[in-house]
Amino acid sequence: MATKATYFITADDDFIAANRAREIFEELSADVFDDMSKEIIDGTVAKVDDAVKACADAIEGAATLSMFGGKKVIWLKGVNFIGSTGAGKSESVKEALQKLYEFLEKLDSETANVVISAYPVDRRHPFFKKIQSVAECEDYKSKDPTSACVDLIARESRIKKIAIDSDAIQTLASIVAGNPRMAISELEKLAIYTNGEREISEQDVIDMVPIFGEGDFFDISNAFYSGDLDTALNALKRYFFANRKASARPIIATLQKQNSILIQIRSLMDGGVLSKSYTTKDAVESASAQFADVFEGAEDKSSYNVFSQNSWYVGSKLAPIASKTSLKKLIDIQLNLTKAFQDLMIRDSDEQVMRDFFVLSMSGNLS
After folding, report:
1. Sheet harboring 6-11: ordered strands across?
2. I want to staple 284 with a disulfide (CB 3.0 to 4.6 A). Which of 65, 310, 311, 340 is the partner?
3. Which is it for the CA torsion 2, 7, 13, 14, positive or negative?
4. What's the CA gap between 150 and 28, in Å, rounded?
5. So what's the pLDDT on residue 277?
6. What is the pLDDT of residue 145?
7. What residue spans of the chain are helical by DSSP H?
8. DSSP helix/strand/coil, 306
9. Which residues sit opposite 283 in a β-bridge?
10. pLDDT value at position 63?
C-alpha cells in the first residue's frame, strides 16, 4: 500500500478521522508480525508538555529500529493541538510540530510509516500546510454532517463488503442525524439482519433503525401522537421520575417542532396534494418541486418548511400521524403548547403542566 512514509488524516469529526486512520494503520501493519514494531501514541492532550511529548514519542518510535528487523508502523492518534486553541497556541508545541515535520520530511517508507489522525484542525496552521507536501493526506471536510456521514457509510460498506442501496445509505445517515458512530453501529446491525443474503434496502433502514437524536423526547412525542392517553402519561411519568430536576421545555420544543410539520402535511393532504392513505417518498419530493417557489430562499432545514425535512421521514413516519389527525386538532395542539409554555412561567411543577397539556390535547379522538 505504502507510497509515502506518512499519512495525515483530518476530518470535521473525530470518529471519521480515527476510523479512516485505523483502516490505514491496520493495512500498513498487516505484514508486521512483531507487535513491538506497531505502536499507537495518544495525541489527545490537555497540556503543552503532553503535546510536546506526543510529537517526540512519534519521532522516537519511527526512528528506533525494529528488534527483529523490518518496518515500524506508528499511529499518532487523535491529535488535538494543530490549531489556535488550547495547547496549539504554545510556541513549544509549534516547535515540536516543526521538528516532527522535519523528521517526516526525511522519513523513508521502507523503514517506517507514520499515520497521524487529527481533530479538530486549523487548516491555516503552518503544520497543516507543510505536511501536505510530504504526506498522503485525506481531509474529510464537510459543512453538512449528514453528507460526511453518507461518505463514511459508503466507504465502510465497501471495505466490509456490505451490500447496501444508495438510497438506504442516505436514509441511514439522516435517521442517525449524521452521527458517524451510530451510523457504523447500525450498518453492522443491518448487515447481520440481512445476513449477507441480499442488499440492504431503504425499507430495511426505515424498519430497523431507531430515530437517533431525540432521546426521551422522541419517545414522549411518539406516545403523545399514539392517541393513547395512558401510554402518553406513563412515558411522561418515566421521564420526570428519571430526573427530578427535568425541564418540560425540551418536550414542548420537540412537540412544537413536530406538530408544525404535521400541520403542513395535513394541509397538503386536505388540498389533495398528498394521499391520506399512503404517502410515498416520491410523492413528498414531487410536492416539494411543486411548491418550491413558495419556500424560495429557505433551503436550510427548518421546522417551518416541511420540504426541508428528509422525504422518507415525512412519508413514512409523519404522514401516517397527519392522516389520522384533523387540521383543527393539530392547530388546537399548537395553541395548547403555547398555553403550556405560558403556564411554566407561573406554576412550580413542570410535570403537572405537561400532564394537564396531555389531558387537554388528547381528550376525545384525534379527528
Report:
1. 38-42, 72-79, 112-118, 6-11, 135-140
2. 311
3. positive
4. 26
5. 83
6. 73
7. 14-28, 48-63, 91-106, 126-131, 145-159, 166-175, 180-194, 202-208, 216-225, 229-242, 249-270, 281-290, 311-313, 319-323, 327-344, 350-362
8. helix
9. none
10. 92
Question: Which pLDDT score is estimated for 214?
Answer: 45
Residue type, position 106, single letter: K
pLDDT of residue 213: 46
| Cα 143 → chain centroid | 12
Q: What is the pLDDT of residue 71?
A: 87
Q: Decide the pairing of beta strands 6-11 and 112-118.
A: parallel
Cell numbers at residue 168, please? Answer: 438506504
C-alpha cell at 62: 519511527
- One-letter identity of residue 198: R
Alpha-carbon dihedral sign for residues 207, 212, 218, 219: positive
Residues of the chain with pLDDT under 70: 1-2, 68, 143-144, 210-218, 242-246, 295-304, 364-367
Please give the Cα distance from 228 to 114 (Å, whole number). 59
Nearest Cα residue to 120 out of 139, 135, 96? 139
pLDDT of residue 295: 66
